[in-house]
Write a structure and sequence with these properties.
The protein is mostly beta strands. Helices cover about 10% and strands about 40% of the residues.
Length: about 200
């Protein structure tokens, strides 16, 4: 489980296609502290497993299956791409964001970027119609692994406000119109909607 608070921005050093999908080799620093084979690390919100690492050379590797590359924004990344990285929450850690599972529900594309006077930006996104019902005004959403509050929503999209610190500490500050981001809707919304729609709900 993650919180949507990005620990560092890594650099994708290599995307090596293989029979199952691709091996991603990522340059990093903070997330390599106490890392072990088999650990989970969220890459742009997508939970991946550490299959190799070298803390001296400052890199680690994860395998992403074809389905993951196809259904997330990872498939659109290439060498040199910047990615948000977060290690799982540990017992006793503060839950500063919201509960993020690392299971991507879909992708969204940036439709508009509005700069505000205080340096913040409002990012608007087009959402898959299947995801829109799970997005709640003033609720939580994870975009490329970043925990954010929904500022506004429609039947086909939503918008979020991103403060200057989050812009500089994550990849969100470099987004442009048309860029894709991974979306994970709030898990509470999923359970509530399923309960309400179930025959016994």
């Amino acid at each position: 489980m993650f919180t949507g608070l990005v620990e560092e921005v890594g650099i994708l050093k290599e995307v090596a296609p293989n029979a199952e999908g691709a091996r991603l080799i990522i340059e990093a620093d903070v997330v390599l502290s106490e890392v072990a084979l088999g650990d989970s690390i969220a890459v742009n919100g997508c939970c991946l497993t550490v299959v190799a690492f070298d803390p001296v050379q400052r890199w680690w590797a994860a395998d992403a299956v074809t389905e993951t590359m196809r259904r997330t924004s990872l498939g659109a990344l290439g060498q040199g791409s910047r990615v948000n990285l977060e290690r799982p929450l540990r017992v006793g850690d503060r839950l500063g964001g919201h509960i993020v599972q690392g299971h991507i529900d879909g992708t969204a594309s940036v439709t508009q970027i509005e700069a505000l006077a205080d340096g913040s930006v409002v990012l608007s996104f087009a959402l898959d119609p299947d995801l829109a019902p799970y997005v709640v005004h003033k609720g939580s959403i994870a975009l490329d692994g970043v925990s954010l509050t929904v500022a506004d929503r429609t039947d086909s999209g939503c918008s979020v406000a991103v403060i200057p610190h989050t812009q500089s500490a994550t990849t969100l500050g470099a987004l442009g119109v048309g860029d894709l981001v991974n979306v994970e809707v709030d898990v509470v919304s999923k359970y509530v909607r399923q309960f309400v729609q179930s025959p016994t709900g």
